[in-house]
């Protein structure tokens, strides 16, 4: 299941680094996924899991059909639900980043109107204004991917996709020179710090033009370390993370089987104030840490020649045949989860998703992964099943 929401937007940022270490990689296969339990969210609509609380006692969902957030306990029973569709002071506006649990009783999310923290009943606890005024936004949604929370020196911080424009756009070199992927947000002091540039040797500094979805960040942070990959770039950057920012520590070069080459777009085709988001290009989409292991969720992308064939079919007006071909091509895309040891950063596995599981993503908490059951193509179901999945050694 895929959801794509668009609005006009352009982003851009800046920072520095210092002499990182580099690691190569091999891909053994010593692990597998085991479904150990499940819970059912019984609701009509189009819900997607966005996060699980640190203790795995609360689950957050977003229902696209009703533009509503739903909170359940670990049995699937609804604890609360709320919506902010109206134009009120506590409304976030256009949703830009799914909510994440700040703690067991609060959620943070990002909208066009700012960064918001709500209690589980939907009462606004705090609103932080964006560091720059916004002209628009782009948003691709994947299960289990939302705003990140990290504790530094006993204080809670948010890690959010940066939305600053700096009066530039992806058709200009200075956009790439000044790019920053994330905001490190001090909740208490309402302070935003831009972090994570395109580092030296980055694919996105080759002079080509790239869309926001090409370099969308996938990240996880814990124990004063930030692990991040930028979209189609096959490398993991590991930073030392503090309340002052980041310092690049290690680069892990990746070579993911079935990962397609990212198309390059001439910069002359970009215009200021507009954005194109593509859901069919290769990307590392999310990173989770479970029991001392980094789980890197990747989407291999549709081959460029196949996309051209699909576009030609669509333009010809044969929508039925183009949809049929798209489903066939999408089923052939390599999607999986690369597993790294958190301490050594050695690659210790590359796994496919379990059968009959939604491959758009998953959440993690309590030492487990939480994956959605794939929808039944033949019968419309009135529930969403979430599998509790454990990574086990063979």
Please name the CATH topology: Neuraminidase
> Secondary-structure element sequence?
EEEEEEEEEEEEEEHEEEEEEEEHHEEEEE
- Shape verdict: globular
Q: Superfamily at the CATH H level?
A: TolB, C-terminal domain
Largest sheet entry: 5 strands, mixed
* Proportion of residues in extended strands: 35-45%
- Derived from helix and strand composition plus strand pairing, the structural class reads mainly beta
**Treating each run of at least 4 consecutive H or I residues as one helix, how many helices?**
3
User: Terminal Cα separation, in Å?
Assistant: 30 Å
CATH class: Mainly Beta
Topology, number of strands: 27
**Radius of gyration of CA atoms, rounded to a whole number:** 20 Å
Strand order of the largest sheet: 2-20-19-18-17
Helix content: under 10%
CATH architectural label? 6 Propeller
- The chain-level mean pLDDT equals 89
Count structural domains.
1
Which blocks of ≥5 consecutive residues have pLDDT under 50?
1-18
Which features would summarize this protein structure in a list?
394 residues; mainly beta; Neuraminidase; five-stranded mixed β-sheet; four-stranded antiparallel β-sheet; 3 helices; 44% strand; globular; 6-bladed beta-propeller protein
Q: Can you put this structure into words, describing what you see?
A:
With 394 residues, the protein is mainly beta. Helices cover 8% and strands 44% of the residues. It has helices at residues 173-178, 304-316, 319-332; strands at residues 3-6, 21-23, 31-41, 47-52, 58-63, 68-73, 78-83, 95-103, 106-111, 114-119, 124-128, 138-141, 148-152, 155-161, 182-186, 191-195, 217-222, 225-230, 235-242, 245-253, 283-290, 293-299, 335-341, 347-351, 357-365, 368-373, 384-393. Helix 2 packs antiparallel against helix 3. The protein starts with a strand and ends with a strand. The relative contact order is 0.19. This is 6-bladed beta-propeller protein.
């Amino acid at each position: 299941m895929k959801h794509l929401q668009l609005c006009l937007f352009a982003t851009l940022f800046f920072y520095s680094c210092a002499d990182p270490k580099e690691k190569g990689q091999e891909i053994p296969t010593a692990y597998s996924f085991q479904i150990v339990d499940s819970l059912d969210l019984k609701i009509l609509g189009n819900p997607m899991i966005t996060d699980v609380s640190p203790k795995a006692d609360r689950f957050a969902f977003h229902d696209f059909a009703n533009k509503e957030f739903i909170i359940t306990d670990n049995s699937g029973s609804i604890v609360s639900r709320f919506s902010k569709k109206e134009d009120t002071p506590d409304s976030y506006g256009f949703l830009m980043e799914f909510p994440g649990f700040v703690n067991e009783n609060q959620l943070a999310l990002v909208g066009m109107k700012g960064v918001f923290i709500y209690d589980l009943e939907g009462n606004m606890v705090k609103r932080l204004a964006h560091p720059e005024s916004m002209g628009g936004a782009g948003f691709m949604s994947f299960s289990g991917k939302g705003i990140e929370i990290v504790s530094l020196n006993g204080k809670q911080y948010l890690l959010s996709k940066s939305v600053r424009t700096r009066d530039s756009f992806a058709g200009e070199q200075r956009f790439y020179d000044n790019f920053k992927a994330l905001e490190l947000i001090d909740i208490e002091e309402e302070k935003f710090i831009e972090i994570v540039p395109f580092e030296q040797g980055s694919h996105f500094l080759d002079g080509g033009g790239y869309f926001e979805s090409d370099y969308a960040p996938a990240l996880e942070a814990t124990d004063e370390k930030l692990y991040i990959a930028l979209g189609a770039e096959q490398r993991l950057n590991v930073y030392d993370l503090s309340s002052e920012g980041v310092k690049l520590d290690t680069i892990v070069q990746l070579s993911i089987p079935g990962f397609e080459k990212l198309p390059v777009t001439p910069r002359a085709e970009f215009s200021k104030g507009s954005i194109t988001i593509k859901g069919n290009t290769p990307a590392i989409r999310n990173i989770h840490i479970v029991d001392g292991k980094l789980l890197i969720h990747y989407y291999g992308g549709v081959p460029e020649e196949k996309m051209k064939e699909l576009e030609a079919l669509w333009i010809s007006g044969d929508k039925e045949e183009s949809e049929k071909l798209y489903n066939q091509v999408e089923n052939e895309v390599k999607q999986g989860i690369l597993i790294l040891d958190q301490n050594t950063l050695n690659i210790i596995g590359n796994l496919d998703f379990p059968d009959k599981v939604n491959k758009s993503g998953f959440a993690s908490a309590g030492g487990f992964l939480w994956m959605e059951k794939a929808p039944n193509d033949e019968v419309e179901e009135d529930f969403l099943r979430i599998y509790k999945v454990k990574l086990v050694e063979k």
